Amino acid sequence: MKNGLIIGLQGGFYTVFADGKSYLCRARGKFRNQKRAPMVGDRVTFTINDDGSGYVQEFSKRKNSFVRPAIANIDQALLVCAAKEPDLQLYLLNKFIALMEHQNVTPIILFTKTDLLNTDEYEQLLAVKKIYEKIGYAVFLGEEKKIIDEQELIRLLADKITVLAGQTGVGKSTALNTLSKHTLNLETNAISMALGRGKHTTRQVTLYPLFDGWISDTPGFSSLELDMISVEELTWDFIDFVPYINDCKFRGCLHINEPGCAVKAAVENGEIFQSRYQSYTQFITEIQEQKVIYKK
Ligand SMILES: Nc1nc2c(ncn2[C@@H]2O[C@H](COP(=O)(O)OP(=O)(O)OP(=O)(O)O)[C@@H](O)[C@H]2O)c(=O)[nH]1
Ligand SMILES: [Zn+2]
């Protein structure tokens, strides 16, 4: 019995990575009877047959799992967000952050296209960067061919499963490319595979080795919606609100119109950033409207 990590799934065959090698495995029949299945990202035990193929025997308890894309045990998400072209959209960034926090995935923020900003805009972006850093997130700035402090970013990728997320055209491929060019332990093949994104019409969920960690670049991650989060849960996914929640007068306070709301007080005295609160109220409305649609 060997221990490995599922890094791919195609046509019912799992690619299991162990000790620097990949093995093609099927899942044992018992999984089907138990109505559960191993997923990409699962840490598994597996056996190898004489012909080199194998069977996934069991998978470990998951830290988290997503349905679409089907992937488990994501440690962190590199949220790529253009500072310009398209204009910076904190609403979208805050949505990604909430979705990731909800699944216990640590967000890392990368603002790209900073070379397109004029001096004033750049100053504004630095202020935004400070906001997210104060909340506790790592924030990086990217230019056409450079990521500032990229060694620090590469360090964060080590030993972790990271997903890439961001709207189309924000510069995800470009960022991966830049990272690949400036690192010494260049894994060209992995990167060119990762950069094969968009070339295939149906792309499988795959983990690519990158900087001693694993990275997944599946388009599905960029189109997740809030439908898996309830209004009561959302507040806990804004980690900057959490320290205040217990001081709200009413339990289950949604921080909208309730009297004695500690979150709103923190927004008013500047401890919680206005833009974060604004996104929060928008998401509450969106979730409530979704609920109405489902009930019909
Ligand atoms: N000036 C400038 N252009 C950039 C930067 N990053 C990306 N671009 C350009 O933006 C366009 C889109 O970049 P991509 O890296 O393909 O974006 P993507 O997020 O991978 O897009 P999808 O594959 O559609 O999801 C390309 O023309 C890039 O050259 C940047 O930091 N500065
Ligand atoms: Zn409140």
UniProtKB/TrEMBL annotation:
Entry's Gene Ontology molecular function annotations: GTP binding; GTPase activity; metal ion binding; rRNA binding
Q: What is the lineage of its organism?
A: Bacteria, Bacillati, Bacillota, Culicoidibacteria, Culicoidibacterales
The UniProt annotation places Zn(2+) binding at: 248, 253, 255, 261
Q: What PROSITE patterns does the entry give? A: ENGC_GTPASE, G_CP
Cofactor binding description: Binds 1 zinc ion per subunit.
Record's keyword annotation contains Metal-binding: yes
The record's SUPFAM superfamilies line, in alphabetical order, gives: Nucleic acid-binding proteins (SSF50249), P-loop containing nucleoside triphosphate hydrolases (SSF52540)
Q: Which GO terms describe its biological process?
A: ribosomal small subunit biogenesis
According to the UniProt record, one GO cellular component term is: cytoplasm
Subunit structure as annotated in this protein's UniProt entry: Monomer. Associates with 30S ribosomal subunit, binds 16S rRNA.
Q: Where is the EngC GTPase domain?
A: 72-222
Q: Where in the cell is the protein located?
A: Cytoplasm
Q: What is its main location?
A: cytoplasm
Q: What's the family?
A: Belongs to the TRAFAC class YlqF/YawG GTPase family. RsgA subfamily.
Which PANTHER family has this protein been placed in? SMALL RIBOSOMAL SUBUNIT BIOGENESIS GTPASE RSGA, SMALL RIBOSOMAL SUBUNIT BIOGENESIS GTPASE RSGA 1, MITOCHONDRIAL-RELATED
* Keywords, ordered alphabetically: Cytoplasm, GTP-binding, Hydrolase, Metal-binding, Nucleotide-binding, Ribosome biogenesis, RNA-binding, rRNA-binding, Zinc
What is the name of the protein in this document? Small ribosomal subunit biogenesis GTPase RsgA
Q: Name one Pfam family in it.
A: RsgA_GTPase
InterPro entries, from UniProt? G_CP_dom, NA-bd_OB-fold, P-loop_NTPase, Ribosome_biogen_GTPase_RsgA, RsgA_GTPase_dom, RsgA_N
Q: What does this protein do?
A: One of several proteins that assist in the late maturation steps of the functional core of the 30S ribosomal subunit. Helps release RbfA from mature subunits. May play a role in the assembly of ribosomal proteins into the subunit. Circularly permuted GTPase that catalyzes slow GTP hydrolysis, GTPase activity is stimulated by the 30S ribosomal subunit.
Q: What class of enzyme is it?
A: hydrolase
What EC number(s) would the UniProt record show? 3.6.1.-
Keyword Metal-binding applies: yes
Q: Which domain of life is it from?
A: Bacteria
UniProt cross-references to CDD domains, sorted A to Z: S1_YloQ_GTPase (cd04466), YjeQ_EngC (cd01854)
